[in-house]
Amino acid sequence: MSKGTIRQILLITDGCSNQGEDPVAMAALAKEQGIVVNVIGVVGNEESATRGIQEVEDIAMAGGGISQVVKAKQLSQTVQMVTRKAMTQTIKGVINQELRQILGDKETIEDLPPEKRGEVMEVVDELGETVDLEVCILVDTSASMASKLPTVQEALLDLSVSLTSRIGGNQFCLYTFPGKRRPIEKVLTWTPKIQSIHSAFSKLGSGGVTPTGPAIREAIGSFLNLPRRRMIEHADTYIEESGF
Amino acid sequence: MPTHISKNRDFNISPGVIITGKWHKKQYQIIKPLGFGAQGSVFLAHSEYGRVALKFSWDNANITSEVNVLKKFAKVQGSALGPSLYDVDDWVTHRGTYSFYAMEFIVGTPFLECLRVRGFEWASVFMLQLLKDLERLHREGFVFGDLKPENLIVTGPPLKIRWLDVGGITEMGRSVKEYTEFYDRGYWGMGSRKADPAYDLFAAAMLMLHAADFRRFEKGNNPEKQLMTKVNDHPLLKPFAPVLTKALKGQYKDARTMRDEWLAITRETIIDVDRNTNRSTRTRMRKKKEWKGTFILALAIFFAYFIYVTFFVM
After folding, report:
1. pLDDT at B6
2. Distance from B191 to chain A by nearest Cα, in Å?
3. Which pLDDT tens digit goes with each residue over A188-207?
4. What is the dihedral sign for C-alpha A239, A243, B5, B11?
5. Is the CB of A124 less than 8 angstroms away from the CB of B61?
6. pLDDT in tens, B260-278
7. Model pLDDT, residue A12
8. What domains can you pick out in chain B, each with its CATH number?
9. Is residue B165 flagged as an active site residue?
10. What digits encode the pLDDT tens for the residues B1-55?
11. Which residues have CB under 8 Å from B214's CB, separation 6+?
């Protein structure tokens, strides 16, 4: 039996967007459609992290997801942690909603005594292990990201190793932005496992454009391209982020 | 609300602070921090149970999940492989509510420090102890997960390796969530992160690679070849290369087989030790020879003296 599907957009970027729609609005739009937006800000050792952080946080907040700013070296662990944490958060959101209906307005998992909370967390962990997960990954390949792309590539392969070790199903797709002619380029269509993306980041975007907003819009659209039978199966069972 | 993980990192509690649990009202007085990890902090504290280790996490859900595993784990086995669990509660502060649990404080020497002081021959002993404990854990349907020197402590004498942090323990068949790259099969491209006995055995082998020169090394372009070269070239690891290779390649289905084969090699290396003894008898023989020389010299002097005396007296 299917336990439903969690949908996430994972945005990996290093700075401010400067072209197209407001990425924060696009993230809010994603959230409205039951898609959580997580953002990872990658900074180099030399740069100060302040420049893009505000936008990174704003996008994640609007998208009901998690944000984290890290140095390139810590990327692998962060990517998998953020994805998992966001999954747990989504599941907890749904369970909290149920709890509120049963126990009253202010009751959440955190308000339960430790013993009861343990039982609820058991269910959360179980779901996190067994739900199907669809992640659309957006990688900023603008010139300033060039030196970080090998690490990004490794982190994504690592994420795939982590998630495919779960019991539940997985679907990944990968976009880079800016693209050659279009603002965003599809690198990988929906696939259960990330294997060969070595050539994916070879084409670097030229110029100083970073169309983060259009990229998120395109990513939302990508969820419609998932195999049709799947869509029908899960059309009304996906777990929706409930905004707590 | 989105969670900004990084903002919670500066979690520290000053010594002397008294923590009262929200639910069970038990009191803990902080003595000192014991360690800060990626997932949380551990503090030493006074309590009605005596000295205990209190574990806090950046993420309250983590504590709850860990406690769940600890409880399940305590139910299925009598003698403690890891620290025993005393209490689970929340600490309410003006900054927010933090979940924590209190567990046994294990006194001992960190694994690597112990090896440094006592010598690498102890590594074999600890490996055998570790594999025996892993076998028991696996039989109960769990995998240790985050096996690394920092999570191991040596108690005694008699010296016995024990598990310090059991936060990575995962039910067999699920995915390992807490791991450390150097000891992680997935990181080295040698398999998945699905919890099976071979996952722990890979980490156990990496523990030896770490202990051999007391340092971790960076992953190269061909990780598998890199690990194999290390195992076959290092003088301390070489005798165990057949077992380490199989463990790294995930060819052991259970800890017992690995333990048996490790033990067999240990028996063979006793011959090595014998050779050492030979060397010492050789030196003893050389000493005997030296002594003989002295004896002959003394005899010659005595003989000369005798001739001298007979000459003069006669």
Report:
1. 40
2. 8
3. 888 888 876 766 666 555 55
4. negative
5. yes
6. 999 998 887 654 444 444 4
7. 92
8. 8-104 (3.30.200.20), 109-267 (1.10.510.10)
9. no
10. 343 344 445 578 889 899 998 999 999 999 999 888 767 788 999 999 899 999 9
11. B112, B115, B116
**Dist CA A188 CA A174 (whole Å):** 5
Q: Tell me which of B1, B4, B199 to substitute to probe the interface with A (most A C-beta atoms closer than 10 Å).
A: B4
> Of all helices (H) and strands (E), which one includes residue B97?
strand B96-104
Asked if A174 contacts A137 with a C-beta cutoff of 8 angstroms, the reply is: yes
Token output for A111: 């308000």
Task: Give residue A90's pLDDT.
Answer: 85
Selecting among B87, B89, B146, B200, the annotated active-site residue is B146
Nearest 5°: the CA angle A133, A139, A144 is 160
Write the pLDDT tens digit of every residue in B135-191: 988 988 889 999 999 889 998 888 899 888 777 888 899 999 888 889 999 999 999
Rounded Cα–Cα distance for residues B165 and B150 (Å):
8
Q: Which of residues 233-292 of B touch A (CB under 8 A)?
A: none
Q: How far, CA to CA in Å, does A216 sit from each of A21, A89, B20, B183, B264?
A: 9, 21, 46, 36, 59
B199 near B221, Cβ under 8 Å?
no
Sequence-separated (6 or more) residues with CB below 8 Å from residue A118: B64, B67, B68, B71, B88
Cβ separation of B89 and A165 shorter than 8 Å?
A: no
In angstroms, the CA A28 to CA A33 distance is 9
Structural domains in chain A, sorted by start = 5-234 (3.40.50.410)
Give chain A's length.
244
Cβ pair B3:A85 closer than 8 A: yes
Looking at the complex, does the CB of residue B92 fall below 8 Å from at least one CB of chain A? no
Q: In the predicted model, what is the mean pLDDT of chain B?
A: 83
Tokens 């944000």 correspond to what residue? Answer: A67
The count of C-alpha atoms lying within 13 angstroms of the C-alpha of B182, restricted to the half-sphere facing its C-beta, is 16
Residue B282: pLDDT above 50?
no
Per the document, the length of chain B is 314
Residue of A225 and A148 predicted with greater confidence: A148
CB atoms within 10 A of CB B11: 14
Q: Pick the residue of B5, B22, B188, B199 with the most A CBs within 10 A to test the interface with A by mutation.
A: B5
How far apart are the CA of B197 and the nearest CA of chain A, in angstroms? 14
